[in-house]
Structure to design on (397 residues):
């Protein structure tokens, strides 16, 4: 391996750690977020890396593996049996969010398909994003074979739309929705204090109370378990027939969507093993792999992908805010209170990490853990919905 490629791989592996340290010490950088900073620094480093002859094809291939490894890690901590403890309005409201996203994203496909390439895949990626989160966008995009620069452009658009919506969530929406939807009615303690503390510790990014060496060994074990999930999925696909006469590893390119769905399924299955589910560090390890992927997207970005960027932003804003408006209308019809509507919308649009700031804006600690669980459920179903709906919409192309 040539030295320039070795340097590139070291940047991919260690740059996210440097960015996380900077984010933890600088409020302004924390506002921008580690994902955006990984994109940005990767983009800035792309020119010198290409100039010294780093192997960008290797980086692109590596990125697909990173996403496959990340998804099981993120899903290992999913306590799906705990969803039965959710109050009925919480479950119903999250279902409304999911249905709203699917309806509006489907409508957006028919509106934008003549002007935006890959409109069906973009609708599928945003269905995955707004039921789960950024990991689902990346996973669905890879599963559908979308170029990394298109994923990066969509992620940049999502940062704009998401920034606007998050500001609205913590500022004008609480008093506005209070006039439109019922008041929140406390349901009592369905979850233990220990459960709440564990989930907040896992999804808030705070340093967990485990000795460093033990934490490192646990993370290594979880990563190896996730790699086993990827190996199983790839092994099964290698046994399947090829439509194009491919053999060996070349055959895997035909089954990227199936591989992504299988590793998602294996991650969910292993979350039912209590020892795996309760192991600290799985979510943060998965997020680290997503950050490495983000660095690669910056390194491999093709400026020609900027063509049509405004239209993509318009499609994203149509889906995001159209789905929120439809969710509010459904909540009004079915008498869902505004706290529940807002926290389930946050779980769908942003995922578990944004639950706590919105709950603080609502001054309601009781909805924190239910909101996090809804976000985890979104991670679990986002890949299935995103890939499934994209494949369905392609039938109308």
């Amino acid at each position: 391996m040539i030295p320039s490629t070795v340097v590139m791989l070291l940047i991919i592996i260690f740059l996210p750690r440097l960015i996380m340290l900077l984010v933890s010490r600088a409020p302004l950088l924390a506002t921008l977020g580690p994902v955006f900073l990984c994109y940005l620094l990767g983009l800035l480093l792309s020119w010198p890396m290409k100039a010294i002859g780093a192997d960008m094809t290797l980086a692109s291939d590596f990125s697909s593996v990173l996403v496959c490894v990340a998804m099981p890690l993120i899903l290992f901590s999913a306590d799906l049996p705990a969803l039965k403890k959710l109050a009925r309005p919480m479950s119903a409201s999250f279902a409304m969010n999911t249905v709203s996203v699917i309806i509006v994203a489907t409508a957006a496909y028919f509106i934008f398909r003549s002007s935006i390439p890959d409109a069906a895949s973009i609708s599928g990626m945003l269905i995955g994003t707004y039921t789960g989160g950024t990991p689902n966008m990346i996973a669905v995009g890879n599963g559908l074979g979308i170029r990394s620069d298109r994923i990066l452009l969509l992620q940049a658009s999502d940062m704009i739309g998401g920034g606007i919506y998050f500001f609205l969530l913590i500022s004008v929406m609480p008093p506005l929705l209070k006039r439109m939807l019922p008041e929140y009615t406390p349901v009592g303690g369905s979850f233990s204090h220990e459960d709440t503390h564990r989930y907040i510790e896992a999804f808030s990014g705070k340093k967990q109370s485990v000795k460093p060496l033990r934490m490192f060994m646990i993370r290594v074990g979880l990563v190896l378990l996730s790699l086993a999930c990827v190996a199983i999925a790839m092994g099964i696909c290698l046994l399947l027939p090829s439509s194009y006469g491919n053999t060996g590893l070349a055959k895997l390119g035909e089954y990227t969507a199936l591989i992504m769905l299988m590793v998602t399924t294996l991650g969910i299955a292993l979350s039912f093993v209590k020892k795996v589910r309760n192991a600290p560090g799985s979510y943060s390890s998965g997020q680290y792999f997503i950050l490495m992927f983000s660095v690669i997207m910056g390194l491999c970005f093709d400026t020609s992908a900027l063509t049509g960027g405004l239209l993509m932003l318009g499609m994203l804003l149509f889906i995001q805010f159209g789905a929120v408006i439809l969710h509010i209308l459904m909540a009004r019809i079915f008498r869902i209170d505004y706290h529940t509507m807002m926290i389930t919308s946050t779980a769908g649009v942003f995922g578990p990490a944004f639950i706590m700031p919105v709950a603080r804006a609502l001054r309601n600690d009781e909805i924190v853990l239910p909101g996090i669980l809804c976000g985890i459920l979104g991670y679990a179903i986002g890949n299935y919905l995103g890939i499934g709906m994209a494949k369905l919409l392609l039938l109308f192309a």
Remarks:
- The chain has 18 helices and no strands.
- The chain has one domain: 3-394.
- The mean pLDDT is 88.
